[in-house]
Structure formats: structure tokens, C-alpha cells
Design the sequence.
């Protein structure tokens, strides 16, 4: 499983990705944290406080096996535009 989360407060956030192994047996779910990574947005600042996983995030796997991260900015309507960002 991949989990996306933003840590922080105010207008400062660290976007984190977590790789978690789930094992399901006998009606029990166990988890093991395999890896985590601080993912830094390389796109422009959009909306209030920029684009972060905090306000909405998702993952898509392309047919050729690439992982695409999706996220939203805070209050995009107030700024009148929607920007895209990328993470590394």
C-alpha cells in the first residue's frame, strides 16, 4: 500500500510518501512500514500555501508502470486558476 500525508501546521507542510506491506490472514491485518520518503514539490506555488497532499491526494499507475501523484491546492477557487506540480 502507498500512503500520502502532509506533516506541518500553518502554511508549512512536508509531503511524505509511505510504502507499507499489508498481510491479511485469518481475519487479521498486519502491517509493516517498508520505506518512507519526503517528496518535495517542484512546481510553482498555486492557491493559498501551494499544492500539498494535505488538501487532497491520490495515486495513479500508468499502463507502463509509472506512478503519478495527484494533489490539490488550498482554495483554488479564490485564485481563479488550477496549477499542476510534480514531486521527486
Sequence:
Amino acid at each position: 500500500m502507498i500512503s500520502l500525508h502532509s506533516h506541518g501546521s500553518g502554511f508549512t507542510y512536508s509531503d511524505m510518501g509511505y510504502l507499507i506491506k499489508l498481510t491479511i490472514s485469518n481475519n487479521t491485518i498486519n502491517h509493516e512500514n517498508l520505506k518512507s520518503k519526503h517528496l518535495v514539490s517542484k512546481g510553482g506555488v498555486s492557491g493559498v500555501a501551494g499544492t500539498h497532499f494535505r488538501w487532497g491526494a491520490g495515486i495513479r499507475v500508468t499502463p507502463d508502470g509509472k506512478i503519478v501523484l495527484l494533489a490539490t491546492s488550498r482554495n483554488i477557487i479564490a485564485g481563479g486558476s488550477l496549477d499542476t506540480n510534480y514531486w521527486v
User: Anything to note?
Assistant: The beta strands are 2-9, 12-25, 28-39, 48-61, 67-74. The chain has a mean pLDDT of 81. The chain has one domain: 2-79. Residues 2-79 form one domain.
